[in-house]
Amino acid sequence: MDVGNLDERQAFTTLDGSTIREIAGRQTLPSRHQSLAEATVPVGGCTAAHYHPQAEELYFFTAGTGRLRIGGEERDVRAGDCAVIPPGVEHKLVNTGTEPLVLLCCCAPPYSHEDTVLTEEPEAAAT
Fold first, then answer.
1. To the nearest 10°, the Cα dihedral for 103, 107, 111, 113?
2. Coil/strand/helix, residue 29
3. Helix, coil or strand: residue 111
4. Residue 67: what pLDDT?
5. Distance (Å, rounded) from C-alpha 15 to C-alpha 123?
6. Residues 104 and 60: beta-carbon distance below 8 Å
7. Using CA atoms, how far apart are residues 69 and 93, in angstroms rounded to an integer?
8. Residue 56 in contact with residue 35, Cβ under 8 Å?
9. pLDDT greater at residue 104 or residue 32
């Protein structure tokens, strides 16, 4: 049996600029076909617009409020919301609230930098 704990995971920054702690995936628990991570976007922050050629993602929001763009559609999101992001579709997340925007992100296949294509520079995303 393989069990991990979020509090034991080291945070790292993904190519899109979000900070994540991987709970399960290639580097943590032995998950070959998907990954699960907690991501945090700070107050006033955002991710760089990007897409994943291979991975489908699920974003499940656990705290905060934000604005999510998937393809040509935008929507406000909050704790309890879940969004499906198909492979190959550009997306961007902006924290519009007064507290960190926290979400669980599931990727299938597992997240990798090699499967992330930035469509704007992370520095440009912050301005």
1. -80
2. coil
3. coil
4. 98
5. 11
6. yes
7. 6
8. no
9. 104
| Interval 1-42: pLDDT, tens | 878 878 888 888 888 888 888 888 877 777 889 999 999 999
Q: What is the DSSP string of 39-77?
A: EEE-TT-BPPPEE-SS-EEEEEEEESEEEEEETTEEEEE
Its pTM stands at 0.87
Distance CA 76, CA 94 (A): 9
Q: How far apart are CA 58 and CA 61, in angstroms?
A: 10
52 near 86, Cβ under 8 Å?
Answer: no
Question: Which residues does residue 92 pair with via DSSP β-bridges, in sequence order?
Answer: 69
Residue written as token pair 């790292």: 12
